[in-house]
Amino acid sequence: MVVTVGVLALQGAFAKHQQIVEQLGFQTLAVRYADELANCSALIIPGGESSTISLQLDNNGLREAVTEFARNHPVMGTCAGLILMAQKTDSRMVTTLGLLDISVSRNGWGRQVHSFTANITIALDNGSADVPAVFIRAPRIDKTGPGVEVLGSYDHQPVLVRQGGHLGVTFHPELTGDQSIHDLFLKSVVT
Ligand code: GLN
Hints:
Blueprint: E1 4-8, H1 14-23, E2 27-31, E3 42-45, H2 50-59, H3 63-72, E4 75-78, H4 80-85, E5 86-89, E6 100-105, E7 115-124, E8 127-136, E9 140-144, E10 149-154, E11 157-163, E12 166-169, H5 180-186
Parallel strand pairs: 1-2, 1-3, 3-4, 4-12, 5-6
Antiparallel strand pairs: 6-9, 7-8, 10-11, 11-12
Residues 47-50, 79-80, 83, 106-107, 136-137 line the site of glutamine.
């Protein structure tokens, strides 16, 4: 059976995620409306502008649907997607979904350093891997709740977290050609 992974396609960097997920042998669906989630086994919320995605979730009737979907399917959020998955953010422009018990600051790495690339070591279920991480106006995770595992850090700050099947990534794993993060996420997809 071919498993379909939805990629939220309201705004932002969704096409690259689709490419990687397809390279890993899954089918993808660009999700814009609630009924499309019925065909998906997992969902990726991409980077972009979290305030815009938040607004579009409401405009397209997706907020409730994504929250409901996340109760029994894995969701991965990258950059703006991670902000949306958080419990709390410092920005009034974003209404978060509360899928990960974390607090985040939008653009939390400081004004001067909007974007940078770093190599980070991530914990995998069977060891670890070094992955290149591209941070673009990245959020900073200020607080993690007790149910949240930190799988990767940069400069002593968590940048990759997991809670149950949900994965939160402050950087852009779709931009480097390295598939480790997507591979890790897709392992929690029940086939
Ligand atoms: N800074 C953006 C936001 O607050 C996120 C940037 C990104 O996704 N690359 O939504």
